[in-house]
């Protein structure tokens, strides 16, 4: 049990360290002039520093809890096979497909207008999942996170192989929005040095603070909004699908509010 607890602490520490590095990269100025106007193949600053597997890992025995009242069939989640195209449209956004070293990414160029006092930037966001393939992930975010935002990792998500890459992508995107993001856990048992300020759940969200909980408890990936709390649930360890669908959901909200534009 002690060894397992240390393993969870180590995973949380690694995730926080990776996210911290991404945060440093994000706030290095990225001039608009560095981005090709024709939607070329240049990637966002820091994109090549993230290394992860194909996102096909499985969770440990205690990784997820499922609703036993639902049948196995109703809990089944499968992403449709999408024919690859060099470019395609998703919700009026143009995505370009790129394959490098057997890894395919889907990128779109955005202008982040409102960044909490920071200079606006034009840059790419790159996803590992085809937006058309994760269209059926339920996403219910209706407002942008507040400047004071916590991303809190639940033990159920920490055990999933996809979580490190998903956490890095989420932190990168929130940084592009200019948010002051802090890392936390939903339980003090996952922290090497228990600190009440690093334990956050939806109960801690209020008019001044957004809490984003990353977990893997539902039957299938889903994103819910509860006041100023956003719950990104990876279902059966489909953490990357859930996080990238949440990012797309936030892009839609940002566009509707004028904070983000297609470049």
How many strand units?
Answer: 11
Number of domain modules? 1
Helix content: 25-40%
- Which ranges are low-confidence, i.e. pLDDT below 50, for 5 or more consecutive residues? 22-72
Oligomer: single chain
The proportion of strand residues reads 15-25%
Write down the Rg: 18 Å
Query: How many alpha or pi helices?
Result: 5
**SSE pattern, N- to C-terminal:** HHEEEEEEHHEEEEHE
The average pLDDT value, as a whole number, equals 79
Structural class, by secondary structure, is: alpha/beta
Q: Give the terminus-to-terminus CA distance.
A: 51 Å
Q: Major sheet: order of its strands?
A: 5-9-10-8-6-7
Largest sheet: 6 strands, mixed
**Principal-axes shape call:** globular
Notes on the structure:
By secondary structure, this protein is α/β, with parallel strands linked by helices. The chain has one domain. 25% of the residues lie in helices and 24% in strands. The chain has helices spanning 2-26, 72-75, 155-158, 163-176, 239-257; strands at residues 87-90, 93-100, 103-112, 121-127, 138-139, 148-153, 180-185, 210-215, 222-226, 229-233, 260-262. Strands 5-9-10-8-6-7 form a 6-stranded mixed beta sheet. Strands 1, 2, 3, 4 and 11 form a 5-stranded antiparallel beta sheet that branches. Helix 1 (2-26) runs parallel beside helix 4 (163-176) and helix 4 packs parallel to helix 5. The model is unreliable at 22-72 (pLDDT under 50).
